[in-house]
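User: I'm putting together notes for a lab meeting next week and I want to include a structural view of one of the chains we've been expressing. I don't have a solved structure, so I'd like a prediction I can at least talk through. The sequence is below, exactly as it appears in our construct file.
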Amino acid sequence: MFGQIPIRNAFALFAWATLLACSSDARDAGNDSAAGTVTDSAAIDDPDRVDPEAAAAGPLIQALADRQEALLEMARIAVNRREQVEVSGDARRMLTEQRRESNRLLGALKSEYRITHQPTIPQAELDLIGNVQGAGVGEFDRIFLDAVVKHHEGDIGIIDEALPKITKPQVREMLTAIRAQRASEAAAFKKQLETAQSKR
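Assistant: Thanks for the context. Below is the predicted structure for the 200-residue chain, given as structure tokens.
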């Protein structure tokens, strides 16, 4: 049969069938394409299996994972700005640590709440990234550190909102550790900013 169909028509038919299958799979999995989130279809089909904690805390952990992508992007920018010697060491360390942390967040969503999430950078964080990207040579360190402090303060607020809704010990422990790290790094970066300001 396919021997009589021109090759380009066979490819078009194959592409159409593939798209149809993919869109059907996405619907069956309960895909929320706007958020890049897939919830276990068994939980959707059976409301009694929906974890109330997943419904309450899941979106907050997803928000942290989304913001994590912004932090990674800011660190990448700082690493690539080779003239910025002062913050490049911090940025390299952040890249390594934050990649691991992102994997832990996404792993917890999947293992504890049966949620698969594809992080996307929120608009507010895109604005911070834009500020870092557009910073001039003389002001880059200040703008980078200030952006990271603002980012961390936002994360602390989200974690403070999430923790009372979470009973799973591993997730509580992970978020408590992230909160402590964010608070410590934000305080250190604020000191750096104050020291730089006093030298002016």
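A couple of points you could mention at the meeting. The longest helix spans residues 169-198. The domain at 57-198 is CATH 1.20.1260.10 (Ferritin).

User: Perfect, that's what I needed.
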